[in-house]
Amino acid sequence: MTWHPLDRVPREPRTCIWELTRRCNLRCIHCENSCGESSARELSCEQIEATAQELAALGCQHVHITGGEPLLHPQWERLCRAIADSGLRTSLITNGTLLDDDRLTRAVDVGVQAVGVSIDGLQATHDSIRLRPAAGPSPWQLAMAAAERAQPHLQTVVITAVNRRNLAELPALRQALADIGIRRWQIQLVIPVGRALEIAKPFVIAPADLERLMAFIAEARKDSRPPHIDTSDSIGYFTEREMDVRGAGGEPALWTGCQAGIRAVAITYDGRVRGCSIMPPEFDAGDLHDESITTIWNDAERFAYSTRFDARKLAGACGRCKVGPLCRAGCTTMAYWTTGSIYSNPFCLHRVRGGCA
After folding, report:
1. Three-class SS of residue 320?
2. pTM beyond cutoff 0.90
3. Where residue 162 falls among pLDDT bands split at 50, 70, 90?
C-alpha cells in the first residue's frame, strides 16, 4: 500500500482535547493523570486565550475542555467564554459532581454548547471507581442528576470507560440512562495508564472480552431507542460488526487509522502538546510555555508517529494482518500502553478471532 486515506485529508487539528487543570475533587482509580492537586505549570488565562485564537486559525472546530475537573479551575467561566468566542464549539467533560443548577446556567451563559458526564456503571460500581477523598454524597447520584439536569439545556453525552467491573452492567446502565432521558452515550475502553496500573486486581478488560462488548454495542445501535452509542477509537476492528458499531448520524463508517496529530490534538494540564491526551511524554510535540500552538502544529515531523506512519514496522499479528496497513494497529495509545509499541495492538477483535494469522 503506497498511500493511506489519512494522507489525502487536510492536516488540521479539527478537535482538541484540552486539560484545563489537574485539580480534581475525586480520586478515580483509573485516572491517567493521577489527578488531585493543581499543577504549578498550568497555563495562565492569557496563554489559554491566545492559544484558543490560534487553534481557530489552524482550523480547529471543537474543543473538549477536561481536567482533572474543569469546574474547579477558578477561571473556568472566563476561559470557556474565550474559547467559545474564538469560534470554537466548546464542550465540558466533567465528573458531574459539581454541575448544579447554578454552574449549568453559567456554563450556558459563557457559550458552552455540550457537556460530557462520566458515569462508569451502576451506583455501587461507579462509586467504587470514582472515589471521594472524604465523606460525601454518592458521586453516581450526583453525576446522574447532573446528566439529567443538563439534557434540556446542552447537548449531553454520558461517557463510560468500560472495565472488568462494569462490562456486565452495560445493559442495565443503558436502561438507567434511558430512564433519565439521555440520548447519546460514548463507550470507550480503560487504557492501562496512570492509576490503572496500580490496581491490585485486573481492571482493564481482556482482549477476549471484545467479542461480548462489540455484540452489545452492535445490537444496541440497531435499536432506534436512545441512548445512541458512539463507539470510541479504542474499540474494533475489521470484523463483520465494524460497520454496525462505528459512525454517527445513521451513516456507517470504517476504521482507517488513528487521527492523532493529523485531525486531532491534545493539550495537557501543564501545557504540553501531543496528538492524544493519553499518549506518554515520549510523544510530546512541544510545550506551550516555550512555543505557540501554531509553531508546534505546523511542524508535522513532531507528530511523525502519525504523519509518517511506517506500515513496514507493524509487528506480531498486526504485521501479518492483511488490513494492517490500513488499520495502523488500531488505537495508537492502546497499542503503546499494552505492548510498548505503536505497531502492535492486542485489543483488536479481528486479531482475537485469529484473522491476522
Report:
1. helix
2. yes
3. very high
CA atoms within 13 A of residue 320's CA, in its CB half-sphere:
8
Query: How confident is residue 251, by pLDDT bands cut at 50, 70 and 90?
Result: confident
Distance CA 96, CA 251 (A): 30
Instruction: Compute the average pLDDT of residues 185-191.
Output: 97
Return the number of other C-beta atoms located less than 10 Å from residue 222's C-beta: 8
- Name 135's Cβ contacts closer than 8 Å, sequence gap at least 6: none
Element (H, E) at 339: helix 332-339
CB-based burial label for 356 (10 Å; 0-12, 13-18, 19+): buried
Return the number of other C-beta atoms located less than 10 Å from residue 48's C-beta: 22
Are 116 and 139 within 8 A, CB to CB?
no
The 114-118 sheet, strands edge to edge: 228-231, 184-189, 155-162, 114-118, 89-94, 62-66, 15-19, 264-267, 272-274, 286-287
d(CA 173, CA 161): 12
- The partner residues of 116 in beta bridges, in order of sequence, read 93, 157
The kind and range of the H/E element at 248 are: strand 247-248
Cβ distance 264 to 221 under 8 Å?
A: no
- Type and span of the H or E element at 56: helix 45-58
In 3D space, the residue among 188, 216, 6, 13 whose CA is nearest the CA of residue 93 turns out to be 188
| 3-class state of residue 268 by DSSP | coil
User: What angle (nearest 5°) sits at the alpha carbon of residue 97, between those of residues 331 and 158?
Assistant: 40
DSSP readout, 164-221? Answer: TTTGGGHHHHHHHHHHTT--EEEEEEPPS-GGGGG-SS--SPPGGGHHHHHHHHHHHH
Three-state SS for 341?
coil
Q: Average of pLDDT values for 297-307?
A: 97
Please write the tens of the pLDDT for every residue from 63-96: 999 999 999 999 999 999 999 999 999 999 999 9
What nine digits make up the cell of 28? 478515580
Task: Tell me how far apart the alpha carbons of residues 166 and 174 are, in angstroms, rounded to a whole number.
Answer: 12
Cα-based torsion angle of the residue sequence 254, 210, 240, 228 in order, rounded to the nearest 10 degrees = -60
The mean pLDDT value for 181-210 works out to: 96
